[in-house]
Structures are given as structure tokens and as C-alpha cells.
Write a structure and sequence with these properties.
about 350 residues; alpha/beta; seven-stranded parallel beta sheet; about 20% strand; phosphorelay response regulator activity
Length: about 350
């Protein structure tokens, strides 16, 4: 198999050198060049024809978002963002994923060399997954950074809901920040309760939850330990914590813990799905969306065996068909659907 050709774009000479060395040490990757800013990168893309681009989110002469938007309109290709673990870095990275970037890695604020070295395996894996990703041309105007919205108050106790005895569980990874947004945008404000796990760095989780809340008719919130799970609400775990569902009499509650990573992830989809299988069983409906690896596949199988309805996103609409594909191979998925049909089918299966 031909080696994956990578172009590294970063204004830091140290980061360019480190990424070049880390990626180049893998026999399946060839770093064909590096660029210090987007204008230089544009010329090197034309000349070197890379398979994957790594792109710093904040760049001189042209910011990373503007460059990415132009790239995805005129010459769409797999892009892995390299972002800082800051609040602004999280917001910009989520915007980059909305523009079509496949995935991202974070660089530490201090001791960049050691920090990136510790994540060498993750960076290599994400670049390899990006090379197989399905990238589409950007057809819509870019949505710039949105101002933070005032948190909405819960009105669940005052509203009349169509159903209170169903629970929807969703897991995702690479490409999932946008896939989850698409699903939640299509949910009505009185939808059955939703619990979600998305592989994302701890420092990014709050910005991700706030963004989803701005886009969803449901109330999207960071789950608190012991919090009651209510219809009309979607719950995600705090950064770097597992989310489980436990039964408390006739209702469900969130359980948050910092147990060891599962399938190399915390939060892990398998952790969430197994708890839903045990606590909700046939009252649950579950879906795996786009993502790298196989986290969630075995948990989805346990859900199906417990009587839950199960489905996965199809390959054509997935950025990376790793997790959904693994679930299909295990026989965990009853249905395989394109992303734009998943929200409606989840509601049908939940009887909403």
C-alpha cells in the first residue's frame, strides 16, 4: 500500500518539526512537506498533492478557519486540526469540524515536545483514519463563532411530554461533533431523554455542550452525578469522566465517575451503553454514529440482547465508519441508516 502523504501546516517551527518527526516515524506515513502559514500551504498543496493536511487553528496572514473554509469549497481534502487546550481553541476547533475537518488533536500549553510525544500513537491513528475519511465539498456559508448563549432553564416539570418511559442513547467519535448536532437539531423539545458520549478532550466538553444547546430544541446539559434524567433533556458527561445510567425506582439517574479508560477512552461509549442495557433494557433505543475504532460496538450488542432497538449510521454518510462498522460486524445493529434519517427513526422506535 502507498504511504499516506501528509503536509504539516503550523506557524510554530517547533511543532512543525515535532509533527514531521512523529508522523514520519510511522512506515505508513510520508511527510511530504511543511508550511508556516496558509498562503505557503496553498502553494505546497498544489505542488505536493498531499493526502492529509494537519492544520493549526490559529495562523498568521490568514486564520485557520478562513483557510479551511476556502480549502473545503475549492479542493476538499482530509484535514486534522491541531488546536490548543484553551476555551477559544475549543470554540475554533468545533467551528473547524463544522466546516469539514475530519478530526483534531490538541497540543499542550507547556512542554509541547513532551506533550505531543506522549500522543504520538493518537496523532498517527487520526491521520491514518483521516486518509480513509469521506470528505465533501463545503456547499453552505460558514457559521462564524457564535456568542455564548444564556443557559436555558429547565421546563420539564411543567411541560406535558408524549413519553416518559423511553431512553435514547447515542455514541460517537471522529466526525461525531457535527453528526450529534444534526441529530439533536431534528429532535422536538419534548423528545424522550437522550444520554450521549462523544470522544472529546476534557477541556473541550463544556464548549461542545454549549454549542449543542444553542442548536437543539432540547435542553442540552452537562450531566451531574445523581441528576434525574428527564424528557426534553440531552445529557453529556463532564470532561474526562464516564457517564452511566442507573435506575432509581421508577426513574433513571446519571452516574458520573472517573474510572479507568475503556477502549482507551474516557468517556467511553461502551460504559454508557452497558449501563443503559442494565438499567433500561427494552425501554432503550440506541445509535452509534461516525467514529474511529470500535468503542460502543460491544455495548450496542448488549443493548440489542437486552431487547433495545439498535441502529448505526451508514458508511456513506459517516466521516469514519469505524465504530458503526464494528457494530455491524458484531451483529449489534438492527438497522443501518444515513445520518439525516437517524433522528426520525430514533423517535419512531421510542414511540414519540
Amino acid at each position: 500500500m502507498d504511504r499516506i502523504k501528509v503536509l504539516v501546516v503550523d506557524d510554530s517551527a517547533v511543532v512543525r518539526q515535532l509533527l514531521t518527526e512523529l508522523l514520519g516515524s510511522d512506515p505508513g506515513i510520508e511527510v511530504v512537506g511543511a508550511a508556516a502559514d496558509p498562503l505557503l500551504a496553498r502553494e505546497k498543496i498544489k505542488r505536493l498533492n498531499p493526502d492529509v493536511l494537519t492544520l493549526d487553528v490559529e495562523m498568521p496572514r490568514m486564520d485557520g478557519l478562513a483557510f479551511l473554509e476556502n480549502l473545503m469549497r475549492l479542493r476538499p481534502m482530509p484535514v486534522v486540526m491541531v488546536s490548543s487546550l484553551t476555551e477559544r481553541g475549543a470554540e475554533i476547533t468545533l467551528q473547524a469540524l463544522a466546516l469539514g475537518a475530519v478530526d483534531f488533536v490538541t497540543k499542550p500549553k507547556l512542554d509541547v515536545a513532551r506533550g505531543l510525544g506522549e500522543y504520538a500513537g493518537e496523532i498517527v491513528a487520526k491521520v491514518k483514519a483521516a486518509a480513509r475519511a469521506r470528505v465533501q465539498a463545503l456547499a453552505r456559508p460558514a457559521q462564524r463563532l457564535e456568542p455564548a448563549a444564556t443557559p436555558r432553564a429547565s421546563t420539564a416539570t411543567a411541560a406535558r411530554f408524549r413519553t416518559t418511559d423511553r431512553l435514547i442513547a447515542i455514541g460517537a467519535s471522529a466526525g461525531g461533533t457535527e453528526a450529534i448536532r444534526v441529530v439533536l437539531e431534528q429532535m422536538p423539545p419534548d423528545a424522550p431523554a437522550i444520554v450521549l458520549t462523544q470522544h472529546i478532550p476534557g477541556g473541550f466538553s463544556r464548549a461542545f455542550i454549549e454549542r449543542l444547546d444553542r442548536h437543539s430544541p432540547m435542553l442540552v446539559r452537562e450531566a451531574g452525578d445523581g441528576e434525574a434524567i428527564l424528557p426534553g433533556h440531552a445529557y453529556l458527561p463532564p470532561g474526562d469522566r464516564h457517564l452511566r445510567v442507573i435506575r432509581d425506582g421508577a426513574r433513571w439517574r446519571c452516574r458520573i465517575d472517573d474510572g479507568p479508560p475503556v477502549n482507551r477512552h474516557r468517556p467511553a461509549v461502551d460504559v454508557l451503553f452497558r449501563s443503559v442495557a442494565q438499567s433500561a433494557g427494552a425501554n432503550a433505543v440506541a445509535a452509534i454514529l461516525t467514529g474511529m475504532g470500535d468503542d460502543g460496538a460491544r455495548g450496542l450488542l448488549e443493548l440489542r440482547q437486552a431487547g433495545a432497538a439498535t441502529l448505526v449510521q451508514d458508511e456513506a454518510s459517516s466521516v469514519v465508519w469505524g465504530m458503526p462498522g464494528a457494530a455491524c460486524r458484531l451483529g449489534a445493529a438492527q438497522e443501518v441508516l444515513p445520518l439525516d434519517r437517524i433522528a426520525g427513526r430514533l423517535l419512531e422506535l421510542a414511540g414519540a
